[in-house]
Amino acid sequence: MKIVIAGAGEMGSHLATMLSGNGHDITVIDRDAKALEEVGTLADIITVEGDSTTFEALRKASTRKCDLFIAVNHTENDNIVAAVIAKQLGARKTIARIDNNEYLEPNNKEIFIEMGIDYLFYPEKVAAAEVVDLLGHTSTTEYVDFSGGRLSLSVFKLEPTSPLVGRELAGFSDSDAELSYRTVAITRDGRTIIPHAEERFEEGDTIYVIARQDAVREVNDLSGQSHIEVKNLMILGGSRIGVQVASELQNEVNIKLIDYNAEKAYRLAELLDKTLIINVDGRNTEAMLEEGLPNMDAFLAVTGRSETNILAALLARRMGVKKVIAEVENLNYINLAESMGIDTIVNKKLITASNIFRFTMSSDVQAIKYLTGSEAEVMEFIAKPNSPATRSRIKEMGLPENVIIGGIVRGDKVEIAVGSTEIKAFDRVVVFALPDAVERVCDFFN
Predict the structure, then answer these.
(1) What number is the average pLDDT over the span 421-432?
(2) Among 168, 208, 170, 171, CA closest to 188
(3) In what residue span(s) does the RCK N-terminal domain sit (predicted)?
(4) Is residue 208 situated within a structural domain?
């Protein structure tokens, strides 16, 4: 697939590296020659120096021949203009990053589609929604719904108190039929395992469990961590994520939002009428203690700096806060942060990659999620009529070793998959795979 990316910033660079690694033909446009040089050292791509809102730069990038145009410049208006022109020049599908809730309202989205933009995405809004979900499922480190919530993914680290430690995994024999949940991936000692028969749980494992809606609470109880009802929340950073979370939760939760910038703090006080805005430096330990950090049920660090977020989250953890979430945009810091005791990480690059990668796949992929701190990817397919997946039971399909089918939704029926399960045309199927097997998995559902 020929893909043109407008914007060589952090997000554009990450997308270029990821997509070129999957064999796509990538061209990146940016005004900044130095940024283009840097992304060129990371991936095998073509670079075009210029303004992506101009016909000249878009023509130079052969946009008229591209299958997918992705606009991820820093400025929202630039992305909209670039995507509209790219469509008019002949791009088959266009995507634009935005930072305005108003654009996502159903009637307004239709206007953008008529203008030629096929998909709008707002990474901070999606990240905020993930944070809100996590605050409602505090024993998990990631929580994702599929098929409208009929299947859910819970991710958690096994504490010594977990009843799973030492037990063998279920779901690998015909006698395991009618399961309500199943473990589909394990992260252990820095590597990701797609489990098979005779695998056992170990203390410290991070496990990925697919569950029916009626079994989610039971699954979360297996982590060995108690669920916390969040009544008091402290947010460090008046970023878009912080504001979105506060806006959504301020009617239900007591929220203190900390920001060191006085001018921004005054603006936030006008915007968030039920949130207490405090103008102090979150790096000041004494100030954070005075503001009641030890009394919080949850702490969210979403400043613009990964280092600040990690240090603040570690302080919150040391002060006894039960649920700590940090935005860590530097991918190299994610494993470090987790090893230091920060169990829940938010990363906009991975969120964006999850939103965009499905547009590059040949199968009918409804959703794809890159799992933080893991190599595994989870995808939701719709099985096409007469596709290989519909011709035999799962255990006879010949799936690659690094793939496991977690669950199936057929109308109102939800089933956790086992070896004897049969997939029918138009089933929604949740699949876990390591990166080297993703393309081969797509072939089963075409």
Answers:
(1) 92
(2) 208
(3) 1-121, 230-346
(4) no
How many other C-beta atoms are found inside a 10 Å radius of the C-beta of residue 190?
10
Same structural domain, 316 and 371: no
How many CB atoms within 10 Å of residue 436?
A: 11
Beta 428-433 vs 403-410: how paired, if at all?
antiparallel
Distance from C-alpha of 216 to C-alpha of 144, rounded to nearest angstrom: 11
CB atoms closer than 10 angstroms to residue 362 = 11
As a residue count, the chain comes to 446
Domain count along the chain: 3
Helices (H), 222-284: 240-249, 262-271
CA 405/CA 421 separation, integer angstroms: 10
Whether residue 115 sits in one domain with residue 26: yes
Report yes or no: 80 and 104 within 8 Å, Cβ to Cβ. Answer: no
CB count in 10 Å sphere of residue 297: 18
C-alpha–C-alpha distance, residues 385 and 383, integer Å? 7
Write out the residue range of the structural domain in which residue 294 sits.
232-321
Burial of residue 330, with CB atoms counted within 10 A of its CB: 0-12 exposed, 13-18 middle, 19 or more buried: middle
Is residue 317, in this structure, part of any structural domain at all? yes
pLDDT value of position 175: 62
The pLDDT of residue 174: 62
- Whole-angstrom CA distances from 394 to 12, 170, 294, 388 are 38, 16, 50, 10
What pLDDT is attached to residue 242? Answer: 95
414 in the Ramachandran plot: left (φ > 0), alpha (ψ -120 to 50) or beta?
Answer: beta
pTM > 0.85: yes or no: no
Name every residue whose Cβ is closer than 8 Å to that of residue 18 and which is 6 or more positions away in sequence. 353, 357
Does some domain include residue 104?
A: yes
Q: Which two tokens stand for residue 19?
A: 């997509």
What is the β-pairing status of strands 206-212 and 151-157?
A: antiparallel
